[in-house]
């Protein structure tokens, strides 16, 4: 069988690139930056498979430019950058990379929670600037974690892993989602509540839901008004779930204690005032950034392409409706 022509929009970890080159003819964006739209549309022409990033907008224009493509493998667990209906209509399979980054992202959410609660970044900057002269009883007072109430919005893989990690801190766990999740409750002891109850009663609120029309600006002025003044908001999900202008107001007016963000509403930029605030920890979208997770993501994306090449159903196919169109 003739080898497929595969295009990779940004260099993947070495293990994934080796895997791809073993099975396919591969071309990759040689620069460590996202492609411009013009470059992207030009480079995807005549490909059998394309491995994309979250920054690559896969819409009707993209799919028409990539005429003949069989699969678009997204190097991410999310796929809000992809028009699934447009892909399915054209008989193009879409895959993602779930599971392999679950623990890494959950761990980073905890890192943000600790950093925001104990003012780690603020204290580090203070010490490096030579301002620490003596210990004092009021120096960098933060929030306790053990025994507090943890609210989780989104009880999927990452939300569940994040909640399991709370067991060592003897926390009360509240969660909300579209409906109760018995698996989440069995593994975490969490209690299903409505969003309003979770916002009012939680000391820490961590977002783990997908970006959908219904979750865009899920957290805005109304929600911040419900939170405790000592509450801390963590977002490792998708930036637009939080209304960043409302977050700035909440942090400035003391409606909440702090926030920890790994994702942003208009990524890669954040709301300008956030850069100057000490009560928010800002990270550059590194939720899955461990060597193992990033390698595993690459191997899974490449394996999905290989599955498609061999006539199999890709193991993490997203738009399963396309199988009917393909006669599988």
UniProtKB/TrEMBL annotation:
Record's GO cellular component terms: cytosol
Question: Which UniProt keywords are given for this protein, alphabetically ordered?
Answer: Oxidoreductase
Q: Which domain of life is it from?
A: Bacteria
Name a GO molecular-function annotation. Answer: hydroxypyruvate reductase [NAD(P)H] activity
Which InterPro entries does the protein's record reference?
D-isomer_2-hydroxyacid_DH, D-isomer_2_OHA_DH_cat_dom, D-isomer_DH_CS, D-isomer_DH_CS1, D-isomer_DH_NAD-bd, NAD(P)-bd_dom_sf
Every D-isomer specific 2-hydroxyacid dehydrogenase NAD-binding domain range: 111-287
| PROSITE patterns associated with the record | D_2_HYDROXYACID_DH_1, D_2_HYDROXYACID_DH_2, D_2_HYDROXYACID_DH_3
Which is a Pfam family this sequence falls into?
Answer: 2-Hacid_dh
Domain D-isomer specific 2-hydroxyacid dehydrogenase catalytic: from-to ranges: 7-319
* Homology family: Belongs to the D-isomer specific 2-hydroxyacid dehydrogenase family.
Q: What PANTHER family does its record include?
A: 2-HYDROXYACID DEHYDROGENASE-RELATED, GLYOXYLATE REDUCTASE 1
The protein, known as: Glyoxylate reductase
Q: Which organism is it from?
A: Caldanaerobius fijiensis DSM 17918
């Amino acid at each position: 069988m003739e080898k497929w022509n595969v295009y990779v929009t940004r260099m993947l970890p070495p293990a994934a690139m080796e895997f791809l080159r073993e099975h396919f003819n591969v071309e990759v964006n040689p620069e460590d930056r996202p492609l411009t739209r013009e470059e992207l549309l030009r480079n995807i022409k005549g490909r059998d498979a394309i491995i994309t990033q979250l920054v690559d907008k896969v819409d009707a224009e993209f799919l028409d430019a990539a005429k003949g493509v069989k699969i678009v493998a997204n190097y991410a667990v999310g796929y809000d950058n992809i028009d699934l209906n447009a892909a399915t209509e054209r008989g193009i399979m879409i895959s993602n990379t779930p599971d392999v980054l679950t623990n890494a992202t959950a761990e980073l959410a905890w890192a943000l929670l600790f950093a925001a609660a104990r003012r780690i970044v603020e204290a580090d900057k203070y010490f490096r600037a030579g301002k620490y002269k003596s210990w004092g009883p009021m120096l960098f007072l933060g929030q306790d974690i053990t025994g507090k109430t943890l609210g989780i919005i989104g009880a999927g893989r990452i939300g569940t892993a994040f909640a399991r990690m709370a067991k060592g801190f003897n926390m009360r766990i509240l969660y909300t989602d579209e409906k109760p999740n018995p698996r989440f409750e069995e593994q975490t002891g969490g209690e299903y509540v409505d969003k309003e109850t979770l916002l009012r009663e939680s000391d820490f609120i961590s977002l783990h839901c997908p970006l959908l029309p219904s979750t865009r600006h899920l957290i805005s002025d109304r929600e911040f008004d419900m939170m405790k003044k000592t509450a801390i908001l963590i977002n490792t999900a998708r930036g637009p779930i939080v209304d960043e202008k409302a977050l700035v107001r909440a942090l400035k007016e003391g409606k909440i204690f702090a926030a920890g963000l790994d994702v942003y509403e208009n990524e890669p930029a954040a709301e300008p005032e956030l850069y100057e605030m000490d009560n928010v920890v800002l990270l550059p979208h590194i939720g899955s950034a461990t060597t193992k997770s990033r390698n595993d993501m690459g191997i899974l994306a490449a394996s999905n392409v290989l599955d498609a090449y061999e006539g199999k159903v890709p193991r993490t196919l997203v738009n399963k409706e396309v199988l009917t169109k393909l006669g599988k």
